[in-house]
Design goal:
Cathepsin B, Chain A, 8 helices, single chain, two-stranded antiparallel sheet, alpha+beta
Amino acid sequence: MFITLKKYTSVTIYIVIAVTLNACTTTGIAQKITDQAIVSWGADKGVKRLEESQYKVDFFKLANHFESQNNKLFCGPASATIVLNALRVRNSAIRLPEDKSLLNDSDQKFIAASKKWSPLFQRYTQNNIFLKSPKSRALVLGEVLQDAKGTVLIGSNGKAKKDRGFQLRQFGALFTAHGLSAQIVVVQQSMSDQEIKAELIANLRTGDDYVIINYKRKVLNQPGGGHLSPLGAYHKVSDSFLVMDVTPNKADWVWVKSELLISAMRTFDTVENRGYLLLSEGIE
């Protein structure tokens, strides 16, 4: 089983100044927060919050399909894979793709003789979600940007422009391309915390719809820049949300105070603020 419970001593964490805003990067900023604002889900307090939560219907399906991102830029593909599988695996009305890249050439020779049977499962992977992605895998990984004529775009620093990872609207477009209903919410400065919190809680109260947040790690005193991960639950007494981080080698799943989490989403990313996606099944 992929879940391992660990006990942590609450401490106040300090991390270094950030220099990069791109998705799933590896820098941070000096900031002090209380030891109660972020609690590891595997700590005693974290376990108790999950037990007490009345808004955790999404958690169990997400946990069942959870996987870590394949590389440092794939927080978006990992989050998309988890949610798409949570919605569609074992749904006989929808035919899911197979990912032939999971078997190399030497593997293929052992199954090539069989025409009617495949060893592959029909499910989404961090590779085949790009079959219906308006943003290519190459661009997510850092291919230089070009205009319609194929001319490389140059930034103000004199270097070729890149747009690694997924911005919020780009990520919403991926889900729309896969036939989901994707409500994109950019967390503007003018939006109230109560309005945002109420919308997130409403989603976590019902099944068959999910939330993926786009936030800045440094606001949570975590190493890294912009990041994408699903929300799994809300705990009313502590007023905290469970972030199911798709980079377990860098950060645990954590309960984050709603005010702090919303602040992490109310940060600028390339062209506008970050935010969240409300996702449910559409008509493909």
